[in-house]
Amino acid sequence: MPIVGRLKRPGDRDMAIAGVVDRLLVKPDAVLIVDYKTDRLVPRSLAEVPAYVGQLALYRAVLARICPGKAIRAALLFMDGPQIIEISGDAMATALAEIMGRVAPG
Fold this sequence. Notes:
two-stranded antiparallel ribbon, Lambda Exonuclease, Chain A, four-stranded mixed beta sheet
């Protein structure tokens, strides 16, 4: 599922976001993003996947504009495990703040 949108950066031009989500489940009150990964070394925890957290945080931010009021969750599915790791909302909020050039919450 293609994800395309723009996010407002403080004091700067909008940031264009374009990517592909492997699976997207949209329910009346929630959205679930699942991104498949084929890494040879399968991580065991969220701490081992920081690069992907930012990617999902951007997708989540775009989807929040498209699906206002819905809870948006995200997970990585590592195919070689298989291993699924859900990305917490706090982790995505921190990653998004860093990407957008703001001070991380907390």
